[in-house]
Amino acid sequence: MVEQWRGTLYPARLPEFHRILPAAELADRVRWVWIPEWNLAPGRVSRQEVLPFPALNLVVDKDGVTLSGPATRRSFRDLSGRGWAVGMLLRPAAVPMFTDDPGSLRDTEIEVDAPDLLAAVVAAMAGKPQGDDDAAGADREGAGAGVVPVPDVAEVRRAAAVAAAARWLEVRVPAPDAEGRLANRLEDLIPADASITRVDQLAGQLGVSVRTVQRLARRYVGLPPLAMIRRYRLQEAAERLRLHPETPIADVAADLGYADHAHLAADFREVLGFTPSGYRRSAAES
Q1: What beta strand segments (E) does the chain contain?
Q2: Listed residue (281, 248, 272, 276) closest to 264, CA to CA
Q3: Which of 8, 31, 144, 240 sits most deeply, having the most CB atoms within 10 A of its CB?
Q4: Listed residue (226, 257, 281) closest to 72, CA to CA
Q5: Contact 85, 61 (CB under 8 A)
Q6: Residue 47 has what pLDDT?
Q7: For residue 130, what pLDDT is reported?
Q8: How many CB atoms lie within 10 A of CB 77?
């Protein structure tokens, strides 16, 4: 299941935005592909604010390919004019193929030399994926005969971009070994079980030592495991505050394992720069 808005602080401000699951055979290397597209009036700027997942993203836009390291705080990007991006939220097991030290990329974006990936995704987003001309012609002919409906052009472009990115990744990033699969399990457990609030609990669920959990997080994510736990809890807290304005903040804190409202507020201020009540107000206004 794609968590369409998790991590997005103000969904109402987003341009057109999609999260698309990868093919099943790549689910151990990519969590999903995210694609925003925008076309803003001259002089208009749209600020997109997110509480990023504790993970790395490989991102393609018309200007190049970048690798975004794990974020330690709220991030934003100002959009203007017309554009798009195709991002892959990497699973932990895929990270060592791009960097030996993801921690060195915290809050950083670096260029990746991948001209073939760039060319394939740009062509797809322009509506010119390889081998698509015959298929499009067949669709038009079938639609004219009243048999096959004409597909949505934008949806076809996005699907082609996802397929192009997947082909590139599958060739260059092998299926994970046993340790990579364990790192993926670590990532899966934290959002799935809200009762996990401490690293020793996570280690117990995985059946490994605390030291092993710390090593896995360092090598495959670049953040301490406790920071990963807190990030997922903050994402869920923000989502609940936005979607359920009638729920007391103290109840949200208790449900997510915080000692009290004050501890949740402290995490909010540290990572997001505002309080839970301040976020709830700004989300309602947006």
Answers
A1: 16-20, 30-39, 45-50, 57-61, 64-68, 75-80, 82-84, 86-90, 109-111
A2: 276
A3: 31
A4: 226
A5: yes
A6: 86
A7: 55
A8: 11
Residue 144's pLDDT is: 46
* Distance of alpha carbon 245 from alpha carbon 143, whole angstroms: 46
Cβ atoms of 205 and 189 closer than 8 Å = yes
Q: What is the pLDDT of residues 160-190, one digit of tens each?
A: 999 999 999 999 999 999 999 999 999 999 9
What 184-193 contacts at long range (C-beta under 8 Å, 24+ apart), as own/partner pairs, is: 184/28, 184/91, 184/92, 184/93, 186/92, 186/213, 186/216, 186/217, 186/220, 186/225, 186/228, 187/54, 187/55, 187/91, 187/92, 187/221, 187/228, 190/228, 190/229, 190/232, 191/232, 191/236
Q: Is the Cβ–Cβ distance between 166 and 23 less than 8 Å?
A: yes
Regions in the chain scoring below 70 on pLDDT: 1-2, 129-151
pLDDT at 286: 77
Structure confidence at residue 190 (pLDDT): 95
- What are phi and psi for residue 185, nearest 5 degrees? -60, -40
Q: Hey, what amino acid is at 6?
A: R
Q: How many helices (H) and strands (E) does the chain have?
A: 10, 9
Inter-residue contact 247 to 236 (CB < 8 Å): no
Cα-based distances in Å from 249 to 20, 138, 246, 254, 256: 32, 55, 9, 9, 11
What are the φ and ψ backbone dihedral angles of 124, each rounded to 5 degrees?
A: -65, -45
Q: What is the pLDDT of residue 146?
A: 52
